[in-house]
Amino acid sequence: MRWTYASLTDRGSRRRRNEDALLVVPERGLFAVADGMGGHAAGDVASRLAVAALASAVPDPLPPDLGAEAVGQHLRAAVLAAHEAIVAEAEAIPAQRGMGTTLTVLSPLPHQARAVIAHIGDSRVYRVRDGALEQLTRDHTWIQGQLDAGMLTPAQARSHPWSSVLLRVLGGEGDAEPDICTVDTRVGDLLLLCTDGLSSVVDGVDLGVLLTQALPLETLAAQLVEAALVRGAPDNVTVVLLQAHPLPL
Ligand code: CA
Question: How many angstroms does the Cα of residue 126 sit away from the middle of ligand 1?
Answer without folding.
Answer: 17
